[in-house]
Amino acid sequence: MRNSEEAQFCNEAFYQAFLSRNINAMNQVWAKNTALLCIHPGGQALTGRHDVITSWQNILAHKTCPRIIHKVDQVVLYEHMVLVTCYEWDERQPDNLLLATNGFTKEEGQYRMVFHQAGPTPIGPLERDHQTEQARH
């Protein structure tokens, strides 16, 4: 598997853990020995594995945990990191669109998440694709 495919596999595992509210799977997605950074929408920057995983435990355990659906937008490869941008929305509130950046690096031969940041975006993937297509003509 190529680096981008391996990172996207980890990205899919992240969203599956989120959707299924599975803290054990979420715990496996995040790196164990690499510095982490996670910024939830409207939240402060969380660093350190304990704070990041605790935040996910709280989110996934909450009765109003969002049911996040995602669409991959772009994959950017760097020498030691892969960034994946995704559009996210709660299936119960599809008009509340977020744009997320997820970062992955290899740890013990497998890609693990080291970065997540999501925040509101005024333009969705379909509008963005349409604007890009119009700019080409």
Walk me through what this model shows.
The chain is an alpha+beta fold. The chain has a single domain (3-136), classed as Nuclear Transport Factor 2, Chain: A. Helices cover 36% and strands 37% of the residues. The chain has helices at residues 3-20, 23-29, 49-61, 125-136; strands at 37-39, 45-47, 68-77, 82-90, 93-107, 110-120. It has a 6-stranded mixed β-sheet.
Number of DSSP strand runs: 6
For the record, the CATH architecture stands as: Roll
Structural class: alpha+beta
Number of domains: 1
Please trace the helix and strand order, writing H or E for each element: HHEEHEEEEH
Radius of gyration: 15 Å
Give the topology:
Layout: H1 3-20, H2 23-29, E1 37-39, E2 45-47, H3 49-61, E3 68-77, E4 82-90, E5 93-107, E6 110-120, H4 125-136
Parallel strand pairs: 1-6
Antiparallel strand pairs: 1-2, 3-4, 4-5, 5-6
Helix pairs in contact: 1-2
Features:
6-stranded mixed sheet, alpha+beta, 37% strand, 4 helices, 6 strands, 137 residues, Nuclear Transport Factor 2, Chain: A, single chain
Question: In summary, what is this structure?
Answer:
By secondary structure, the chain is of the alpha+beta class. 36% of the residues lie in helices and 37% in strands.
